[in-house]
């Protein structure tokens, strides 16, 4: 039995592992943590990702844990609701015409549980990738001296990927000037505004934001200056949240975190018998929910290519996934960011009018949703 190594037990690594296990490969997953990560940034599953996970046999369990969200909204802080887009118009394009809101940390235990049902498949926790040697196959050595050997290594070990570093691949791109502060709140925002969708992009030239619902919490994303002390930002969070809506009492914040946001793509997704996937290969801002989804698409494409045993097919998959990262994921996520924060009044007004027109026309809605749902990044779509 051929063995494939996967670095990283996040949603991307475990999807790759399960897709390979189902194709008859033995798989060893090397995870640096002592358990699956509980923290969760990504929380939206787009239709093609739901198709892929369903094909892997985990769609039912994921749906049990998530919120079906057929609609998402564009709002303006001053003008209120601008446009509500309904993925139901994609009914002929996908068997899942909605987003599923669900924290990624709810998916990973399901994937691992399925993986461990396959003979020869397992996970090594506490395995920090220290060395990657290519010797016909790939031998990976951990910081504490363990070694594993396989035919291929898929590096899905995150933005700070040890696999990427070990193969010497550079990670070019930019860092945004502001940090993103995400507050999870113990409030039911629908008690205050009943025209909210599960995901709401709120335009504002001074302080744009995103309001999104997960099974556990509503989350509020606020752009935050780069250099201010963290304590100062957490102290003023309450007043910033009241600026979003004022319920006449303090918001209850369950937890909050701040992070820097990058747009970067690895110079190559393949080095010899090592493939990079997910955040190890490309990172982008979270606007549009493209990061985890495109990583899962990488994983499924790599598993299919490895199963062919054809080196040219594996090169083609790595090249194609890099093209999609550059031409689609980087470009759409950056455009989402620029539009939310646009300051020019004419450009803002034209964009909001454009969104109203799209929402009012089912054919234009479908065209726009084929792109934002990522379907158009993966397959040709009939007119
Ligand atoms: O656009 C989306 O669907 C996700 C946006 C987002 C923003 C901030 C945090 C987060 O978990 C998701």
Summarize the structure.
This protein has 383 residues and is an alpha+beta fold. The chain has helices at 11-22, 47-55, 59-65, 104-115, 162-167, 230-235, 237-244, 291-308, 311-340, 345-360, 362-372, and strands spanning 3-7, 26-30, 44-45, 67-69, 71-76, 80-86, 99-101, 122-124, 129-134, 138-142, 147-150, 152-155, 171-185, 199-203, 209-213, 218-224, 253-266, 270-271, 274-276, 282-283.
Task: Tell me what you see in this structure.
The chain has 383 residues and is of the alpha+beta class. 35% of the residues lie in helices and 28% in strands. It has a domain at 3-68 and 102-172 and 264-341: FAD/NAD(P)-binding domain. The protein has helices at 11-22, 47-55, 59-65, 104-115, 162-167, 230-235, 237-244, 291-308, 311-340, 345-360, 362-372, and strands at 3-7, 26-30, 44-45, 67-69, 71-76, 80-86, 99-101, 122-124, 129-134, 138-142, 147-150, 152-155, 171-185, 199-203, 209-213, 218-224, 253-266, 270-271, 274-276, 282-283. Helix 1 packs parallel to helix 4 (104-115) and helix 10 packs across helix 11. The protein is globular and about 60 Å long. The relative contact order is 0.17. Bound molecules: ligand LIJDXRAZ. The ligand O=C(O)CCc1cccc(O)c1 binds at residues 41, 43-44, 182, 199, 210, 212, 219, 221, 286-289. Its EC number is 1.14.13.127.
Characteristics of this structure?
alpha+beta; eight-stranded mixed beta sheet; binds the ligand O=C(O)CCc1cccc(O)c1; FAD/NAD(P)-binding domain; 28% strand; EC 1.14.13.127; FAD/NAD-bd_sf; 11 helices; globular; 3-(3-hydroxyphenyl)propionate hydroxylase activity; 383 residues; FAD-bd; PheA/TfdB_FAD_monoxygenase
């Amino acid at each position: 039995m051929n063995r494939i190594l996967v670095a990283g037990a996040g949603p991307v690594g475990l999807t790759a592992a399960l897709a390979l296990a189902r194709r008859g490969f033995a798989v060893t997953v090397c995870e640096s943590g002592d358990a699956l990560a509980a923290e969760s940034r990504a929380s939206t599953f787009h239709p093609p990702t739901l198709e892929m996970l369903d094909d892997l046999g985990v769609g039912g369990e994921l749906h049990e844990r998530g919120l079906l969200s057929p609609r998402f909204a564009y709002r303006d802080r001053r003008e209120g609701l601008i446009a509500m887009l309904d993925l139901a118009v994609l009914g002929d394009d996908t068997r899942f015409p909605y987003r599923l809101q669900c924290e990624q940390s709810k998916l990973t235990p399901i994937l691992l549980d399925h993986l461990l049902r396959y003979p020869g498949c397992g996970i090594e926790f506490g395995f920090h990738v220290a060395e990657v040697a290519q010797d016909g196959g790939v031998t990976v050595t951990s910081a504490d001296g363990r070694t594993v050997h396989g035919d291929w290594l898929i590096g899905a070990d995150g933005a700070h990927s040890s696999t990427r570093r070990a193969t010497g691949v550079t990670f070019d791109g930019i860092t945004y000037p502001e940090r993103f502060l995400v507050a999870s709140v113990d409030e039911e925002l629908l008690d205050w505004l009943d025209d909210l969708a599960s995901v709401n992009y709120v335009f504002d030239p001074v302080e744009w934001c995103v309001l999104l619902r997960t099974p556990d919490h509503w989350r509020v994303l606020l752009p935050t200056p780069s250099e201010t002390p963290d304590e100062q930002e957490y102290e003023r969070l309450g007043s910033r949240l009241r600026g979003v809506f004022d319920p006449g009492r303090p918001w209850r914040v369950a937890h909050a975190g701040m992070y820097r946001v990058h747009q970067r793509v690895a110079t190559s997704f393949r080095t010899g018998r090592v493939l990079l996937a997910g955040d190890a290969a490309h990172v982008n801002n979270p606007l549009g929910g493209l990061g985890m989804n495109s990583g899962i698409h990488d994983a499924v494409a790599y598993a299919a290519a490895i199963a062919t045993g054809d080196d040219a097919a594996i090169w083609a998959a790595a090249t194609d996934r890099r093209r999609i990262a550059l031409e689609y994921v980087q470009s759409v996520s950056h455009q989402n960011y620029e539009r939310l924060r646009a300051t020019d009044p004419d450009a803002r007004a034209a964009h909001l009018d454009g969104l109203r027109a799209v929402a009012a026309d089912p054919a234009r809605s479908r065209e726009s949703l084929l792109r934002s749902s990522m379907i158009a990044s993966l397959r040709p779509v009939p007119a």
